[in-house]
Amino acid sequence: MAALARISARHLKSAGIINSSASCFFTQRRGVASKLFVGGLSFYTTEQGLSEAFSQFGQVIEAQIVMDRVSDKSKGFGFVTFASDDEARKALTELNGQQLHGRVVFVDYAKAKQSFRGGGFPIARGPPEPVAVVTEETETSKSEKQKRKQQNADTATDFIE
């Protein structure tokens, strides 16, 4: 299977057909074991420079640097996809913790992208529990209420007269 993917990728690349969608197709067939995450990149590292640095360990199908949408500048990390899992493993062991374009890079296997839906609010687990308010009326509070009622009644009578 890996040999077939390598041959297909080589033909597509030589014909100038390979692009990000084609390389994603190969990545999905092989799984994420041949796709590496590269963190700590220099902000001046290009995709071509990243590809050249990793190509010494095997055939690089795609090298991608993640860019900020607003500033269109590098976010300092990217991904490299190899034609085989063995090549990716060799690149990981050799380049992890090494300097690349003046910065120490962190290389690890890429993790499958998680899908986030919603605004990040926790899921409701049911209605909130009722809060019981307990008040005890004492004799003094009852008498105070009666006094206030009487005062209010007197004030209302004074206002009407």
UniProtKB/TrEMBL annotation:
<feature type="domain" description="RRM">
    <location>
        <begin position="34"/>
        <end position="112"/>
    </location>
</feature>
<dbReference type="InterPro" id="IPR052462">
    <property type="entry name" value="SLIRP/GR-RBP-like"/>
</dbReference>
<dbReference type="GO" id="GO:1901002">
    <property type="term" value="P:positive regulation of response to salt stress"/>
</dbReference>
<dbReference type="GO" id="GO:0003723">
    <property type="term" value="F:RNA binding"/>
</dbReference>
<dbReference type="Pfam" id="PF00076">
    <property type="entry name" value="RRM_1"/>
</dbReference>
<protein>
    <recommendedName>
        <fullName>RRM domain-containing protein</fullName>
    </recommendedName>
</protein>
<keyword id="KW-0694">RNA-binding</keyword>
<feature type="region of interest" description="Disordered">
    <location>
        <begin position="120"/>
        <end position="161"/>
    </location>
</feature>
<dbReference type="InterPro" id="IPR035979">
    <property type="entry name" value="RBD_domain_sf"/>
</dbReference>
<dbReference type="InterPro" id="IPR012677">
    <property type="entry name" value="Nucleotide-bd_a/b_plait_sf"/>
</dbReference>
<dbReference type="GO" id="GO:0009507">
    <property type="term" value="C:chloroplast"/>
</dbReference>
<dbReference type="InterPro" id="IPR000504">
    <property type="entry name" value="RRM_dom"/>
</dbReference>
